[in-house]
Amino acid sequence: MNLNKRNNTVVHKNTQKKDDNVMSAKPGSSKERQVIAEEAQQRRFQAHQMPVKGRARKKKDTHNILKYIDGVTGPMLALRQSMKEQRHVRVMVRREHGIRGSLEGVLVWFDKFWNLWLRDVQEVCQRRKYGYSENKMCGVPQDCAWRLQDLGIELPKQEVKSINRKNVEIRRHLQQLFVRGEQVALVILLPTNKNTLLQMET
After folding, report:
1. What does the UniProt keyword field contain (predicted)?
2. Cα–Cα distance between 25 and 32 in angstroms, integer?
């Protein structure tokens, strides 16, 4: 006879009887105390031990150049107005010591660093006349305009005019131009009337 099977059936019956006795325990009895003791063995969390509630994700920073331009104040307000009206502006460009020249064109865009994007630009600048010595190492200089044309590069045409014995004036027309803010010395809003423009040029 297999004793293991017999012992297993006896233990199983005893556990069923204990469970029935616990369920049918009367209030105030020792069996009820046993049930309360079993509940006390379960872990009880305090308030600071409870799971932390999650927070909603922060909204993405939507601050960009478009919103900045709509909220500008002070001198940049005039730039925004000229940009919307497609007015011509004259930008005085600086160099290391003094003013290099001026740029005149339509203001397309700007930012808080005074970086300017101009279209249909007329550049006027001055420089000194440089007297170069004869270069005997490289030989006779050659025109490489045809190489640039093969690459699809068109250089702006320059008009050089002698002002005095030491300086020359250079004029050139550019389709588009980006001016860094650190080079901007002054921005002048030009009037829209053509007659006043001619008077200023003369």
Report:
1. Ribonucleoprotein
2. 6
Could you tell me which of 199, 180, 182 has the C-alpha nearest to residue 190?
Answer: 199
Which pLDDT tens digit goes with each residue over 55-84?
777 777 677 777 778 788 888 888 888 888
Within 8 A by CB and 6+ apart from 193, the residues are none
Q: What's the distance, Cα to Cα, between the start and end of the chain in Å?
A: 129
> Distance (Å, rounded) from C-alpha 124 to C-alpha 146?
27
Q: What pTM does this model have? A: 0.57
Identify the CATH assignment for 85-130+147-201 out of 3.90.1200.10, 2.60.120.280, 3.30.565.10, 2.30.30.100.
2.30.30.100
- What stretch of H or E contains 162? strand 158-162
Cβ contact 111:101 at 8 Å = no
In the sheet that 184-189 helps form, which strands lie side by side, from edge to edge?
Answer: 158-162, 167-179, 116-128, 99-110, 88-94, 184-189
